């Protein structure tokens, strides 16, 4: 790939103990919509992680002894500062990740701001338990205290959104953190570090170490002074993290991949269901763990659904992420685009029909974007349940549509994958909606909608989609250590 000559390379630094520190070696980072190297990211390893963990340990006594209200005020201030720079953050996220500027402006950055506001508020409202044993003359109560230095590792698809979803609860509870964003999307984390001092976050409370999973990530996972790891990413990496952290018996929260079904019954309101299911399949280029990738449609409406669904998918324009009329930006990397394309090829080789997108509709890209990693929304029909396209997480703008006959059958087929993150059910029969939602092996079930979230409630997956939940109460429990005290009078 060529370098962008028109502008100087952006060079990121680690943020350790309240200071930006250069690194001895760097990794190239690409702009996915042009294919150019535009940024250099520190290639941190053991040494940098060691310094960051030390800074976090040193900051812990002061930060953990602040009142929840003091921490809450600092989190709110940080939220205000990010919001003030929302446009700059959105531009940076779009350039770094390939997502559309519209998505970054309306989803990623507002949610990052909200993550800080939400935990700034929720930390003020927790109560601990108390029970009484009159015959023993005892009362029991519980206390919760921050754990220590939290290791936070996040993926490339929703960079600042997912990183702040971890940083906010961790520091609200009084922990200090060492965060490692994805090496492919580190820019907005680095930008956020520039605001920490002004927000009043003391040095060492939030440290950011940039670099690869194999070097910086593993050093963090293996560090004996980091008792808990919150990880969002792939199931494969989670297995590795579990193994590497096992000798230290670390507390783990694992938010992993999905192969999410949408189940569409013949009494569904298709005027709502079709645009929402197009969005749930292709939003953020299909690079959201919650994206739909298996659509089960009841036989009576199958052909009508397919026709209307493909027509709606074709309305989604693919191209330059900074064009406000574009709905599908670039995929994260050349390698990832290749991987997603290979899934489509495999499906074709197995006899499935590609109805639009990859290999069917020619993609015309504006000048400057020809070398970007683009793929338009791709709909595949007649795929067998056992095909890799119906079993594995593709994590791109590809969705499979298949027919089903009965409720019993579709529940079995929807549950017939190793993942269990999110499912959607479309029906106007309230009894059926409850029955099906109850039987789906999935951490989240949306009926007649998608991606409507109340951050108070648990988020997370079953089976290979993860261990643990995050949310107001769940994150509080994860990021604190509980103690039961008994008093006899
Ligand atoms: P990934 O597992 O490759 O990487 C995630 C993070 O882990 C990155 O920061 C990476 O550098 C780091 N990492 C890699 N190897 C490591 C190791 N050995 N030790 C420590 N850290 C390591 O995932 P990705 O490709 O960046 O992200 C896509 C995946 O994330 C998809 O599977 C997607 O479903 C999942 N995801 C899940 C959720 C959720 O909430 N359940 C949300 C978003 C994305």
Q: How would you describe the shape?
A: globular
Q: Mean of residue pLDDT?
A: 97
With helices defined by DSSP (H or I, 4 residues minimum), what is the helix count?
15
Helix content: 25-40%
Bound molecules: nicotinamide-adenine-dinucleotide
Number of domains: 2
Major beta sheet summary? 7 strands, mixed
Low-confidence stretches: none
**Based on DSSP secondary structure assignment, what is the total number of beta strands?**
23
Name of the top-level CATH class of the largest domain: Alpha Beta
Which second-level CATH architecture of the largest domain applies?
Answer: 3-Layer(aba) Sandwich
CATH superfamily of the largest domain: Aldehyde Dehydrogenase, Chain A, domain 1
Strand order of the largest sheet: 15-16-17-14-13-19-20
Which structural class is indicated by helix and strand composition? alpha/beta
Terminus-to-terminus distance:
74 Å
CATH topology of the largest domain: Aldehyde Dehydrogenase, Chain A, domain 1
Q: Report the radius of gyration as a whole number of Å.
A: 23 Å
Pfam families: Aldedh
GO molecular function: aminomuconate-semialdehyde dehydrogenase activity; retinal dehydrogenase (NAD+) activity
Function: Catalyzes the NAD-dependent oxidation of 2-aminomuconic semialdehyde of the kynurenine metabolic pathway in L-tryptophan degradation.
Active site: 255
